[in-house]
């Protein structure tokens, strides 16, 4: 009986060893996870160090023994030539100034085209920089418009719509106040009368000035400002110079018409106070 038990035990051990080997062959252990035993530096390795900065080798077992001489067949690596020092004149040279950002320009295309909308303006200039509210209209009235940069007088721009309900179909784009927007052909607020005439290429017609000291351009007389790319039109409101003599102001006030090269109109020194771009 003892011999039988020993034989069965030996046989079971042989069978177990065989099964374990078969299982290991069919189902090998999973490989170690990537990066196991490595640090973050292994994923973003440091740049290779130069031989001078590498860690020193271990000292020989006998500290009194001299290091072996270099073999003549293996010449020492040449030293890396140091980069030439920067010239003092180059170091002292001033850096070029950064370019100034382009001025805000209204064109009769893109987000200012006839088919524009309040939404297109919001996407272009960020919805936080546009509101829909009241602006000054004719004869002291208030009208609705989309207002770009309402809290920044130098970037403010007003856009009125033919379809006010959907805030679409551009009607008039108004540049006024202290706005620094530039209209087509280079028109901008503050331009003197002579400069506007130069942009037009010929004299244009101006109405008489009202009690508020402003007048409108009545016609461009076939000049360059009478036709703009994009099928839009441009109109101006001129303001008399506050320092103009009373006689000069009175001479252009009332129900009158002038050409821009008229001497009495030039004496009042008007300049651009508002620009209206319409379709």
Question: Which keywords apply here?
Answer:
nine-stranded antiparallel beta sheet, globular, 279 residues, disordered N terminus, single chain, alpha+beta
Describe how the helices and strands are arranged:
Elements: H1 2-26, H2 40-43, H3 88-92, H4 118-125, E1 130-136, E2 142-148, E3 157-163, E4 168-175, H5 193-200, E5 205-207, E6 214-219, E7 233-239, H6 246-251, E8 257-259, H7 263-267, E9 271-278
Antiparallel strand pairs: 1-2, 2-3, 3-4, 4-9, 5-6, 5-8, 6-7, 7-9
Shape: globular
Spans of 5+ residues with little confidence (pLDDT < 50)?
Answer: 1-73
Please give the alpha-carbon distance between the first and last residues: 115 Å
Structural class: alpha+beta
- Order of strands in the sheet with the most strands? 1-2-3-4-9-7-6-5-8
- Rounded to an integer in angstroms, the radius of gyration calculated over CA atoms is 42 Å
Question: What is the H/E order?
Answer: HHHHEEEEHEEEHEHE
- Measured by DSSP, the beta-strand proportion falls in 15-25%
* Number of distinct helices: 7
Number of strands: 9
Estimate the helix proportion, in percent: 10-25%
Kindly report the average pLDDT value: 77
Largest sheet: 9 strands, antiparallel
């Amino acid at each position: 009986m003892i011999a039988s038990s020993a034989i069965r035990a030996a046989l079971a051990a042989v069978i177990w060893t065989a099964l374990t080997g078969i299982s290991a062959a069919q189902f090998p252990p999973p490989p170690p996870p990537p990066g196991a035993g490595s640090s973050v530096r292994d994923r973003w390795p440091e740049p290779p160090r130069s031989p001078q900065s590498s860690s020193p080798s271990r000292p020989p077992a006998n500290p009194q023994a001299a290091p072996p001489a270099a073999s003549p067949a293996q010449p020492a690596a040449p030293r890396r030539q140091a980069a030439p020092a920067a010239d003092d004149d180059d170091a002292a040279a001033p850096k070029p100034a950064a370019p100034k950002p382009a001025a805000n320009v209204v064109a009769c295309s893109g987000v200012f085209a006839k088919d524009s909308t309040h939404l297109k303006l919001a996407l272009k200039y960020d919805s936080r920089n546009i509101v829909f509210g009241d602006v000054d209209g004719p004869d002291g009235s208030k009208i609705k418009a989309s207002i770009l940069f309402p809290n920044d007088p130098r970037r403010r721009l007003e856009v009125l719509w033919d379809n006010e309900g959907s805030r679409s179909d551009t009607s008039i784009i108004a540049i006024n106040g202290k706005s620094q927007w530039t209209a087509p052909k280079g028109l901008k607020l503050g331009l003197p009368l002579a400069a506007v005439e130069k942009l037009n290429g010929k004299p244009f017609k101006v109405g008489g000035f009202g009690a508020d000291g402003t007048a409108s351009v009545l016609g461009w007389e076939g000049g360059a400002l009478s036709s703009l790319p994009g099928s839009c039109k441009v109109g101006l409101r001129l303001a008399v110079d506050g320092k103009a003599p009373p006689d000069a102001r009175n001479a252009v006030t009332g129900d009158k018409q002038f050409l821009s090269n008229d001497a009495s109109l030039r004496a009042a020194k008007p300049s651009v106070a508002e620009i209206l771009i319409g379709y």
